[in-house]
Design brief:
four-stranded antiparallel sheet, 287 residues, Rieske Iron-sulfur Protein, alpha+beta, elongated
Length: 287
Amino acid sequence: MRKLIEGVIDDIGEMSSLDGVCSKTAGWVTRATKGDFVKNALSGTWLGHPLHPVLSDLPVGAWAMASALDVTAGRGGAKAARRLVGLGLLSAVPTAAAGWSDWADTYGPPQRVGYAHALGNAAGVALQAASWVARARGRRGAGVMLSGVGLGVTVCAAYLGGHLSFVRGIGVNHTAFQEPATKWTDVASLSVLSEDKLVRVTVEGVPVVLVRHDGQVYALSATCTHAGGPLDEGKIVGDGCIECPWHGSVFRLADGEAVRGPASVDEPPWDVKIDSGRVLVRPATSS
């Protein structure tokens, strides 16, 4: 069974025929989420955690409990079950918005699988909406059936979402498993750091970006926490920030704080000291 499911997902990921509609849809979403406030809100930058997986528990949980009441409480739980279906529908709106925002920053096979994930969720929502209408009209049997089918479709769609996160690594912190050195490491000559020039160095296998900005030398891990983009190929923006070249995530040089999504996790900062014209760094958490 596992091999069959994996084969189906792989087939979806290889469906290049989806690229046209994916590209057009991603363009619409990107334009709609262009503003910093909107992107940060939907990405979970303010929360320090991707928002979509947090919100997704709400509709799935509401619909699961509605079906549980249908099975265990009978007609006595009909009113509460209908309310739960309605709450699930309401919470599905911000959940979908956050999901579309995250999806627009993917490409290739993950974007195709993500599109199928979205279509599955849309079908689940449509079935739950039909269930709510049927229940409101007193057709409890039809409502129960529609909710059950809708929940099954949503669970299948959720499996695709889990595949994207836990198998393809979409939305995970790409610096989570870095094990940087704990001591000061000499990485470069101060003379190579001209104003706002991004320089990539490596400390025991961990890439680090160095930059001199307003006379101060800063260092951050060079792998973007959002999708692994190379920060050393980005640019300095705003008031002492660095922008990732892949999806536009922005981090503050002084402490690595994510100030614009899609990144929701801060960039690991490094301590810097200058000794005899040499630049030495160590992780900021070191004592």
